[in-house]
Design goal:
mainly alpha; elongated
Length: 119
């Protein structure tokens, strides 16, 4: 497979996001790569399908949900651990990614999501 410098930079960015459990921002990424923020955002979206910022939010959210579903830690502690500065910030991401409120989600059983999160 033929990879160019930008693809290698995107691979590095994804590795950094995973290494930090999504607990960083786009400016943190820029400090670790040799391309501009605009180039990063353009190539990241072309290769991954999301902007780096949205990918970070999604990655962090999925990590939190995996830990919650495996009963490793209480939700309120996870919200703090994953840098949600308050419950409403978490609720906003939850509604964005899950298309429903946490209250509605947690009162129903989600077999598909539990199966996905256990991978």
């Amino acid at each position: 497979m033929n990879t160019d410098k930008n693809t290698e930079q995107i691979d590095l960015v994804i590795s950094l996001i995973k290494e930090k459990d999504g607990l960083l921002n786009v400016l943190d990424l820029i400090d670790n790569i040799s391309i501009s923020q605009k180039t990063l955002e353009t190539h990241f979206k072309r290769i991954v399908g999301l902007t780096p910022g949205k990918y970070i939010r999604l990655y962090r959210f999925l990590k939190l949900m995996r830990k919650y579903e495996s009963n490793e830690i209480e939700l309120k502690d996870l919200i703090y651990m994953y840098n949600y500065y308050d419950h409403s910030h978490f609720t906003k991401d939850f509604k964005h990614f899950m298309k429903q409120s946490p209250k509605d989600y947690f009162k129903t059983e989600h077999v598909f999501l539990k199966e996905y999160l256990n991978k």
